[in-house]
Amino acid sequence: MTTPTITARNEPHAPAGRSRGNRRQSLLAILCAIALAVALVPHATDLVSGNTFSTALVLTCPVALAALGGVWAERAGVVNIGLEGTMILGTWGAGFGALQWGPALGLVFGMACGALGGLVHAVVTVTFKVDHIVAGVAINILAPGVAKYLSSLTFAAMPGGGTTQSPPVPALPVLPLPFGLGGLSTGIVLGLVLFPLSWWLLWRTPYGLRLRFCGENPVAATSLGIRVTVLRYGAVVSSGALAGLGGALLVLASSGLYRDGQTAGRGYMGLAATVFGNWTPSGAFAGSLLYGYMDALQLRGGGSAVRTVLVVAALVCGLLAVLVILRRGGLRRLAFPALAAILLATVTALTDSVPEQVAFVAPYVAVLVALVLSGQRLRPPAALGKRHDIASS
């Protein structure tokens, strides 16, 4: 009698060249749609104006730094839901530090407060093996109360301060930009530099390889002599420091003072950008830039600017539908872009301006929609959120 054998069947995969071609076509469709909108839609030039982009960078950087912090922690295998809480600690630290020692040390003290929040998260998750989600939610709940209590001890006794806000703080120096774009805070420039630096550390150094190995297979990493616990501690503390820096920039580069609730959910948007960016620094920045760009548009142009974005989205979907027809992609591929184009065109035809309430939530909706659309290509670290119980590591 012969024993039947089971042969593994490989699932078909789309060729890499075809995937790159689809991305190029999508990018070409977006650029063509923007060009058509600028040519045909009144006031659409705000979409590509230099002031819009400079404002978008200022609004992007705090969210992007929180997202970068998420990349550091989660590449090491630790889920960091507490980015919002560590950003809040960074805002208070920046306000207090700037009033006591000046804006530069305020930036450093904000990072230190965020790093302290990251250290608490590391102790709870890495040492005591508490569920990562529960620990992060606890930090998000505790941090606002801690910041308000510290404000009552420090800012309440200062002229112009209180338990919910600080007096005005000194601002960071501003670097002038070319082409009449104004200036950009040195803190924003520092934040932007951290992205290529993080990419180099995580993907081009032995340290980065070991850290990413901890997030993929900590048991195998331990068998090779890698100290998983030490690397995870360093990654989570660095994550908190980056999120704290993002919170500090809200104080020192945007508003000029500390306020209760200043983060306004930007830590959660940073977490969404981490996932949208497939746990890479460049992807995290791209997701954060989407939020910052939409936020800049709604601040500068309100509902009319958001309506213009919907016009661009309708043109993009229409062009993608045309590309599907030309490539004979079939009704299944045609359905989504065609229906989306019809729906968006109908909405924009019925109104000259999106309601202000809708415009306010547009940046959050844009990030969530992008996250849903990119869900099929995401690949988290294999050991993300899993316990590592080998004591010798």
Going by CATH, the architecture of the domain at 44-302 would be Orthogonal Bundle
How can the largest sheet be summarized? 2 strands, antiparallel
Shape: globular
Portion in strands: under 5%
Distance between the termini: 50 Å
Q: CATH class of the domain at 44-302, anyone? A: Mainly Alpha
- Count of helical segments? 13
- Summed over residues and divided by their number, the pLDDT gives a mean of 85
Class per helix and strand makeup: mainly alpha
Quick tags:
ABC transporter involved in vitamin B12 uptake, BtuC; two-stranded antiparallel sheet; globular; 393 residues; mainly alpha
Question: Quick gist of this model?
Answer:
This protein is an all-alpha fold and 393 residues long.
Could you explain how this protein is built, in words?
The protein is mainly alpha-helical and 393 residues long. It is built from 13 helices and two strands, in the order H-H-H-H-H-E-E-H-H-H-H-H-H-H-H. Helix 3 packs antiparallel against helix 4 (103-127) and helix 3 (83-101) crosses helix 10 (266-276). It has helices at 16-40, 50-75, 83-101, 103-127, 132-154, 186-203, 206-216, 218-223, 228-255, 266-276, 281-326, 331-350, 356-373, and strands at 174-176, 183-185. The longest helix has 46 residues, at 281-326. Strand 1 (174-176) and strand 2 (183-185) form a beta hairpin. The radius of gyration is 23 Å and the shape is globular. Helices cover 70% and strands 2% of the residues. The chain has a domain at 44-302: ABC transporter involved in vitamin B12 uptake, BtuC (Orthogonal Bundle), CATH 1.10.3470. The chain has a two-stranded antiparallel sheet with strand order 1-2. Residues 1-16 have low confidence and may be disordered.
